[in-house]
Amino acid sequence: MAMVFDQNDLSYLSMENGAEYYNVLKSNEKIETFSRLTVELNYLYRTVTDKDVMHVKLLALLDRLDLSTTEINKYTFFDFEKPYTRNLVATDNKNYTLLLLCWTPGKESKIHNHPCDGCYIKALRGCIRETLYSVHESSQEILKNKTRFYCEGQVSYMTDDIGLHKIGNPNHDMGSVSMHLYTPPFSSCKVWATDGVGSLNKFEIGAMGFFSVMGHRSPFLEGRPGVHSRLMLEIASYFKKKNEAKENELQFQ
């Protein structure tokens, strides 16, 4: 069963074993599992409040990420009838959502924005193509600026202050996988048609769904309005009940 650490279980930072984990979290060792990455993300969001400092630390954190094929495969689900799939790895329902996007050969997303502080992208398998767009001030037309390519291990950052973009797989023979860290989570975004880019006001609202959740296929959670919010509540409720059960168990020991 592919799972990550309990998002709300911070017992690893207790007085008893906190020193050991503190040393691990402060080290420059490679991060080889999503569980370890989740632990470090939770630690950062508990201890860092300045956005600029957080941005630098998140970039450094992703630079240390060195996942094996086996680890990546735990959360890798392709559907070659879709341009890509969105696979939830972890979230704390407040500060971040961590996803794996699996790209069909030669396919790409629509142009979209990011209603959050930022989106961090790391290419995990294959090559990722990013096309950036700006908005003409007077005509409000969306204009193509440039195209960038990211090989395995390279990191990109995107925010609405930079502009709009679309992501895709330039390889027509092999699928690719990218990891996306959204801070904070969001349930929908604006999307524009990829062909014949029109005005800024000609957008649709894209709902965020999941093709899989924490390593398990989720066929009823793909882009349906309101499903994302309900799922986040269910996940939060699950961890709350789990922590309450732990507390009750400790009281009777």
TrEMBL record:
It catalyses: L-cysteine + O2 = 3-sulfino-L-alanine + H(+). Fe cation binds at residues 112, 114, 165. It holds the Pfam family CDO_I. Keywords: Dioxygenase, Iron, Metal-binding, Oxidoreductase, Thioether bond. GO terms for molecular function: cysteine dioxygenase activity; ferrous iron binding. Its EC number is 1.13.11.20. Binds 1 Fe cation per subunit. Its cofactor is Fe cation. The keyword Thylakoid does not apply. There is a cross-link at residues 119-182 (3'-(S-cysteinyl)-tyrosine (Cys-Tyr)). GO terms for biological process: L-cysteine catabolic process. InterPro entries: CDO_1, RmlC-like_jellyroll, RmlC_Cupin_sf. Belongs to the cysteine dioxygenase family. This is Cysteine dioxygenase. It comes from Chromulina nebulosa.
